[in-house]
Specification:
By secondary structure, the protein is an alpha/beta fold. It contains 15 helices and nine strands. Helix content is about 45%, strand content about 10%. The model is unreliable at about 175-185 and about 285-290 (pLDDT under 50). It comes from Porphyridium purpureum.
């Protein structure tokens, strides 16, 4: 029987238990699921007092789950803040099942109370507009999902880069870069210059340590954003632009060519990507160590065989059906 059901039946007796016994119960509940604590708090005043004064520094993964929203959203957000303030060691946080719970104000609260946060899932959190993401700039975030959020959310990640270089992603920008790279003594940049360039690039992206980014089904994500990732996402390993109808082959080419750490790119349901031309392009490229994920809509068995024969080192190639 679930702890909440047991506690509900014994609610009158719980109020008579000493605080240290209740604290032990709260600790045991947190080992199963931190959210269980706040379900228990609903059945006893004593549990509420203990839960609010208890800390859970060892909790690393936290997923908010309020499947039955019978109360007002403000009540759930208050409970969410209470949980976050008591779980300061959280590294992985998910709001995936709560489309209307997370907003920019809650993100600002997260930035203040979760200094170790590395993974944040905001998929389909429709109230996230992006301003709250700036409050996370000091958090060592490595994995971020914004799939289904407001278009302005992804814009915040690259706001500084776009503001300082309006030509980013255009032919003019590429030409200016090549001219700069060709100048200097002996045509080569010194280690100090390279380090400075890397520092400037990191300072132009909100989360420079990102290894995984999911911006699926974002209508405003196009080749401009792919160019920004190619220039500033120096540690990117996994990217999903699934269903981003404005991403073309040019953007994918530039990303894979510029970021050697990339391992997977989900471009399924991107209508501007011609698989056959994509194959032909990669036949002209040096064998890349990354793994690309292509949609299978336009593939034929002969096309798959041809790709395998021309790219024998793509051992981890993954296809999405």
């Amino acid at each position: 029987m679930e702890p909440v059901a047991v506690a509900s039946r014994a609610a009158p007796a719980l109020d008579k238990l000493p605080a240290d016994v209740l604290a032990k119960c709260v600790t045991l509940a947190s080992d199963m699921d931190v959210m269980e604590i706040y379900r228990l708090a609903a059945v006893s005043q004593s549990f509420r007092e203990v839960a609010r004064s208890h800390a859970f520094p060892d909790v690393r993964d936290l997923e908010f789950s309020f499947p039955r929203m019978r109360q007002k959203l403000d009540v759930f957000r208050t409970e969410a803040r209470t949980v976050l303030s008591q779980c300061s060691g959280v590294e992985t946080l998910s709001f995936r099942r709560n489309e209307w719970l997370a907003d920019d104000e809650l993100l600002a609260y997260i930035g203040e109370h979760l200094p170790k946060l590395r993974s944040l899932d905001l998929a389909r959190c429709r109230l996230v507009r992006g301003t709250g993401l700036r409050a996370l700039r000091l958090v060592p975030l490595q994995h971020l999902s914004l799939s289904g959020c407001a278009p302005s959310a992804v814009e915040q990640i690259f706001e500084r880069a776009w503001r300082t270089n309006r030509l980013l992603g255009t032919d003019s920008q590429e030409d200016s870069e090549s001219m700069l790279q060709s100048t200097g003594e002996n045509g080569e940049a010194t280690p100090d210059v390279l380090r400075e360039r890397r520092r400037q690039k990191q300072n132009r992206m909100l989360f420079p340590q990102l290894k995984s980014l999911n911006v699926s089904y974002m209508a405003n994500v196009d080749d401009k954003y792919m160019a920004m990732l190619a220039k500033y996402a120096l540690n990117l390993q996994h990217l999903s632009v699934r269903g981003c109808e404005n991403v073309s082959m040019r953007g994918v080419h530039r990303l894979v060519r510029s970021v050697p750490t990339v391992e997977s790119v989900d471009v399924s349901f991107c209508p501007q990507l011609d698989v056959q031309l994509l194959i032909e392009t990669f036949r002209c490229q040096p064998v890349h160590s990354s793994c690309l994920i292509f949609p299978l809509d336009d593939w034929t068995p002969s096309g798959l065989c041809m790709f395998r024969s021309t790219h024998p080192n793509f051992e981890k190639l993954t296809f999405i059906l």
